[in-house]
Design goal:
276 residues, alpha/beta, DNA polymerase, domain 1, 2 domains, 3-stranded parallel β-sheet
Length: 276
């Protein structure tokens, strides 16, 4: 029987589109008895600025990030584990992406106004706080103004791809994301492969420098987890896993800690990090 350690290596904070800030997330993880977590916010490492990394604790916090990329008409998310969050090339790229996100968000607010939803971009900025501004913050502003009742409704009515207020954003190439992660001392891992929709791409990504595969994920069925675990073994990729929790949203139970990984996977990741 496979033993599991309570480790969740895919978590988001208010630095991107989560509901908890980093300190709240850590407190929640400790309360659940988790031994290790990774914060993997979208296109930002700001969450780590308010955490005192490296201090002795019963909870290990692994640095991380999640890049949204495009490859052969597929949206591909690349996780980076154990990155140096002070790497200058990484920070410069993230700042550029942040500026582009702000321009995109403002454009979507203007489109919503033309659709009759009179929300203020300044309020969207306030809701984002110091975090990376995104569609979830626009949805929150719509809820406050009474135009929708949930974030899910905001996306389905206005903000999802091909929605009336949707504005596409520039994404990094897969190779650029992998190179950035590697240059900052991290391990590039393919996130939730079932959502990519084409397992044949995994071999191509390995040629680009991919080193890991997210096997356990809240969108994977048990059968898919078994298949990706076998694939990781066959392709010599380090297996990882996590809930992809964004905190409590729309009154749903938070996913943190509900998806655990087999004993030794965190150790394999750390071992690979020590070799880079």
């Amino acid at each position: 029987m496979i033993r599991s350690v309570p480790a969740d290596l895919h978590l988001h904070t208010t630095a991107s589109d989560g509901s908890w800030n980093a300190c709240e997330l850590v407190a929640r993880a400790r309360g659940l008895g988790l031994t290790a977590i990774a914060i993997t916010d979208h296109d930002t490492v700001d969450a780590f600025h308010c955490l005192k990394m490296g201090q002795p604790t019963n909870l290990e916090v692994i640095t991380g990030i999640e890049f949204s990329t495009e490859f052969e008409n597929h949206e591909v998310h690349i996780l980076g584990y154990g990155i140096d969050v002070a790497n200058q090339e990484l920070l410069a790229t993230l700042q550029q992406l942040r500026v582009e996100r702000e321009i995109r968000a403002e454009t979507m607010v203007e489109r919503l106004k033309k659709l009759g939803c009179q929300i203020a971009y300044s309020r969207v900025q306030q809701l984002a706080g110091h975090g990376t501004i995104g569609r979830v913050h626009i949805a929150q502003a719509l809820i406050e103004s009474g135009y929708i009742k949930s974030i899910k409704e905001g996306f389905s009515r206005y903000l999802e791809m091909n929605g009336p207020a949707y504005v596409p954003r520039r994404k990094l190439s897969v190779s650029k994301a992998i190179d950035l992660i590697t240059a900052s001392g991290g391990i590039p891992v393919l996130a939730h492969p079932v959502l990519v929709g084409n397992d044949d791409l995994i071999g191509v990504l390995i040629d680009m420098g991919l080193l890991g595969l997210e096997v356990v994920h809240s969108s994977h069925t048990p059968e898919q987890m078994m298949r990706y675990r076998q694939m990781a073994e066959e392709l010599c990729l380090v297996p990882t896993g996590g809930s992809d929790c964004h905190g409590p949203k729309d009154h749903e139970e938070p996913l943190i800690g509900k998806y655990v990984i087999p004993d030794g996977w965190v150790g394999k990741l750390k071992e690979l990090l020590s070799e880079t």
